[in-house]
């Protein structure tokens, strides 16, 4: 049975004993001053019986109706305090609004039994209730029913960027179900609880942090799609939550839904490849640039929604970094092996990693500590040697200028030396008897992802689907299909690919980014993440191909070293869509030695504190914010 079973009541009619009905409440959607809220069925508290009839005093409705709950420990609460409190609530929480001052429930935890007038003078709220209580619920906005039951308030937002596959809510026992609520307009609703219910503590460093999950992670109670509709239809809801997701939940994060992935986490572009699901919308610039993939939903959601704090993606060949780069976000591909992948769909276990996309480096570090658990040590002694890969040599355009300014600022900050690093020549010099690096690593990535995913995902899926559908084969998007065909037809083995990868990794991790006793990593390696180049989503690209080749983005894939995207600015372009100048993000990827993730998080926080980088904004621009262009014409939606 699903989570709803807890609310299931069986009503037996005495006069028609053969007739019965199963009734369950999945909550309700209400409006307070034109803002939509979801009221879940879970009861978080009950008003004392002597005041349960109070609802008739202000609405005569069956409810649920809005109410503000506060706790005081001393008598003498005044109306002026109430408005100050409401201002505080509004400043720190997007769910609270003055409409919740319709009614006030004051939980008094002090000595004695204060009378109502001592607590509040006249008419701040239509109903004022005083009560002493043993177990106060957190202050904030709630809904109360005519039965006196108190329910949390969830604000409903529109997923106008199409970033989610399914939005979700968990009940008081932590069991997830699909959000049974909608919103005006064409997009699904996302429900977020008031931030006021949560207080960050040492045990719950992510208390109340709103989290979106790429839909290749299992969440108990929800189906996983892996970006494939047949998969979604075939398998039941997961019965266990992926370890990485559970770690974030255990630290207090609130999962608000599952987010879009390109199919089976393979790289897809918008126009041709996203057949089963539509690619989310990149909020930056004209709003019609590709989101990159495969963590497309997590990237688009982080770039679009101020109410979404952080998202969990995965990176095998660039699936966190790509969406972070083109949407101007912080995103980390961790050192391979440091974040557990149980409960996550594999692409190639030798290469798969689980990491975060966010706008705020401080939250990023806090969430990473929860995600990596014992596998991260945050250290604050930094390398003084910087290697740059394929960096611009001069500031020929605005993007190149920003990249060089950032390098200069970082060099100053670290008192470091900078060396341009060329993989082709460095590899050849260090490994004279080996083949060219671009030959050794040319087919390693496509070989591993195809052969592994065929074995771990495709073949069991095909067999299950055929068994359930009289021998039929499920629909697969063109991109995974062509990659799997490559795996089917290649005579090279997984062992050969792993041997090539290992040869590169052993060299890189000892000669290029080596461990260092003082600074964790001998050097810092930088390459250009994004330079405001356009990738229009309405362009018909060539048919998808096999991802051959070695490039900067593959360094971390083969070496297992961490690779973090850092947004540093934005540059203009003339949009073919708007016929107007728009702006796109400029980002740099920062790498350190394998296992030094904690040092890199610390360095990026230090760069933020020094004013060299900034917290990214949502909307049109990651630097200046502003409404997403599409959103400006969707004012009727919240
Ligand atoms: C409002 O917040 C400020 C700063 O957090 C705090 O000092 C003040 O006491 C709060 N006021 C009320 C009425 O809670
Ligand atoms: C949980 O799901 C897995 C995979 O579908 C299945 O093998 C297992 O039997 C299920 N366990 C329970 C307790 O339902
Ligand atoms: C830490 O790394 C080890 C070795 O790779 C892994 O088994 C373990 O699951 C990781 N811990 C977490 C919290 O992911
Ligand atoms: C940087 O380069 C200078 C000049 O080549 C050298 O003296 C210095 O030791 C170098 N510093 C570091 C940290 O490598
Ligand atoms: C690296 O060296 C190779 C071989 O000399 C050269 O072809 C290539 O252009 C160099 N790359 C860069 C970015 O300078
Ligand atoms: C990589 O492999 C593809 C497919 O076999 C081939 O077309 C291409 O020339 C190769 N590139 C290198 C550098 O070996
Ligand atoms: C491994 O490297 C050799 C060159 O040493 C190359 O010919 C081969 O194609 C590579 N295979 C894979 C799967 O990476
Ligand atoms: C490659 O494998 C696919 C099966 O995935 C098969 O249909 C196709 O004919 C093969 N192509 C070649 C060129 O061998
Ligand atoms: C946009 O186009 C105008 C007119 O061709 C040109 O002068 C300007 O440099 C272009 N701006 C950018 C950012 O490319
Ligand atoms: C970064 O570099 C630019 C250009 O040199 C400079 O204007 C700016 O002040 C620097 N920022 C910081 C925080 O040092």
Automatic annotation (TrEMBL):
Residues 285-297 have a biased composition (Low complexity). InterPro entries: Amidase_dom, Arp1_N, AS_sf. Residues 1-21 form the signal peptide. Keywords: Signal, Transferase. Coiled coil: none annotated. Residues 57-157 form the Scytalone dehydratase-like protein Arp1 N-terminal domain. Residues 281-301 are annotated as: Disordered. Pfam families: Amidase, DUF8016. Residues 200-360 form the Amidase domain. This is Glutamyl-tRNA amidotransferase. It comes from Mytilinidion resinicola.
